Amino acid sequence: EESETNVTTRVVLRTRKTNCSKTRAARVRPDYPLTRTTSESEMKLMPPEFFQIDALDLAPRLLGKFMRRDNVVLRITEVEAYRPNDSACHGRFGVTPRTAPVFGPGGHAYVYLCYGLHMMLNIVADKEGVGAAVLIRSCSPVSGMETIQERRGLKTDKPVLLNGPGKVGQALGLSTEWSHHPLYSPGGLELLDGGEDVEKVMVGPRVGIDYALPEHVNALWRFAVADTPWISAPKNTLKPL
């Protein structure tokens, strides 16, 4: 599926011999330590049109971008794409009070409660009415470490702090009330770009979707920054793209 929105940066389409038909490569930013050369003043909000493309195109492009709320800044290191006609996507249920944000225009947040415990942050993709999103699976900390540790209830600077989608939602202090929030508007929860790009991405099947159809269970729609410990388990299913 192709978005009709004009996007300046295209990704390279690569076909793999798997039950999934296609994966895409993209340019991503290298891993950042807690102190970076890029200052927050140099970060810029991504425009709405950045998000309004196929979720499978958007997912790898989100790697290396920054999520900011209050004094907390996280760098996105791992994502999963969820698409229309995808038996693992919440959109498969149609428009309900819970899933309505997924059918909004790309660039908004979709936050849902998982197992009654974890707030899962998704970035809505594509045009309004499509029903697609990208789950933020893992991040690395950039700033606001004390706030992150306090929200997580965990005094560590190890990857266990942010290597899972529920941990990311907790570190950002999110609730379902953040659903529909525009990530391209200043204030609140923002998605920001910082500059540098590399071409080192890992790809693999998504996690925890055994209920889905085999072609969707095996689809290579999980993307992670290579050479970083800030990714979730299982790591051995991720391979270089």
UniProtKB/TrEMBL annotation:
It catalyses: Hydrolysis of alkylated DNA, releasing 3-methyladenine, 3-methylguanine, 7-methylguanine and 7-methyladenine. The keyword DNA damage applies. Its EC number is 3.2.2.21. Hydrolysis of the deoxyribose N-glycosidic bond to excise 3-methyladenine, and 7-methylguanine from the damaged DNA polymer formed by alkylation lesions. It is an enzyme of class 3 (hydrolase). It comes from the Eukaryota. It holds the Pfam family Pur_DNA_glyco. It comes from Arabidopsis thaliana. This is DNA-3-methyladenine glycosylase II. One of its GO terms (biological process) is base-excision repair. Belongs to the DNA glycosylase MPG family. One of its GO terms (molecular function) is alkylbase DNA N-glycosylase activity.
